[in-house]
Amino acid sequence: MSEVSISVIVPVYKIEAYLPKCIESILDQSFTNFELILVDNGSPDNCPEICDEYAKKDDRIKAVHKAHGELLSGRKEGLRNAKGKYVAYIDGDDWVDKFYLDILFKLAEVNNSDLVVTGHFREFDGKIETIRPPYTGVFDENDIKNSILPKAMYNGAFCEHEISTYVWSKLFKRELLNQILFEVPDDIVMGEDAAITYTYLSISKKLTISRIPLYYYRQRHDSILKSIKNTTIEFYRLGLLKNFLEKKLSPYLDKENLDTQILYYLYSLILVRSGGLIHDASGNIIFNPFLKATKNSKVIVYSSGSFGQHLLSSNYKSNFFQIVKWIDIDFHEMSIGDNFVNPFSSIVNTEFDFFIIATINPSAFKSIKEELVLMGIDSKKVVQINTDEKEIRQLFSQLGFDKNLRQ
């Protein structure tokens, strides 16, 4: 094979139903000068055989088999085997547009960029939502250090990133990725993409952001992150992430800015993982982020995504709220306890005290709230999420972190 332009790395674990579509979408690329590295992460299903079969059919494909580890270990193993000038990560249950690599490559080459960021599609239960970066452009090292990085994790609107955390829908230079990826601790399993993306961004000299969506992210019912079970381990890992980000970004950001960005980013991770209702080791709720909605309030919950599912699961254990309806515009059959997802229109004539929009995306929150008001919902009943910095710091203190977020 001649010199490879792009190494496409696909970590693989327990996704045999989705993997062929992912691989076929890569092999169907208009851009052909790539290698495909399938990293079997000790998958117990038929994924190893699928990887080997495709490797036999196309000499651009390399199947790598390793003992099971976290996703990060698969990303690292793929990079160890990569030979391309650039690296593109694709998750094995997702797929990409025919022109995905072609456009990524052109954006990188034309603008001499170290990092390319694009939009993506979110596919959930057959429905597709388009997600685009807030702005586009080509940014030099000065822009990155002074404008992009200070808002990368938190731009002042809870919890909105200037640069998405995902390593997919991006193109990296292999030589730069080699400098940072292997330093990310394997024990970081919550926010590991952020550890990679933001550290890489800090050493980039040229960034190109495009709104073109070409990556299809599949939000699976069975892939929603599990709720927090062992708080000791969870918060230890959270501490690892915090320490790593602080160490890598402190040379480029002032302490106050970095501290605030990390605080709100970690808070968003905890909220989604816990469903908002945060318990102590004894199972007692020590933090309720849903302002005004108190214990035993009659609540309608909007969203059957990750946050919504975790909120329903957490509430099922604690019976903190009386959840009278669970709805989503992306209606599909799903249940947690006695609660089933209902269509958006089902809220008519439902008595409730408060309406919780289970999202940490302020843009999504605003648009959903506007739709609810159009349907006659009192805007005063729509619950805001607590973003008071003092109270968030008190929460971290209760979780075992000191004032500098160290455990």
UniProtKB/TrEMBL annotation:
<dbReference type="GO" id="GO:0016758">
    <property type="term" value="F:hexosyltransferase activity"/>
</dbReference>
<keyword id="KW-0808">Transferase</keyword>
<keyword id="KW-0328">Glycosyltransferase</keyword>
<dbReference type="Pfam" id="PF00535">
    <property type="entry name" value="Glycos_transf_2"/>
</dbReference>
<protein>
    <submittedName>
        <fullName>Glycosyltransferase family 2 protein</fullName>
    </submittedName>
</protein>
<feature type="domain" description="Glycosyltransferase 2-like">
    <location>
        <begin position="7"/>
        <end position="174"/>
    </location>
</feature>
<dbReference type="InterPro" id="IPR001173">
    <property type="entry name" value="Glyco_trans_2-like"/>
</dbReference>
<dbReference type="InterPro" id="IPR029044">
    <property type="entry name" value="Nucleotide-diphossugar_trans"/>
</dbReference>
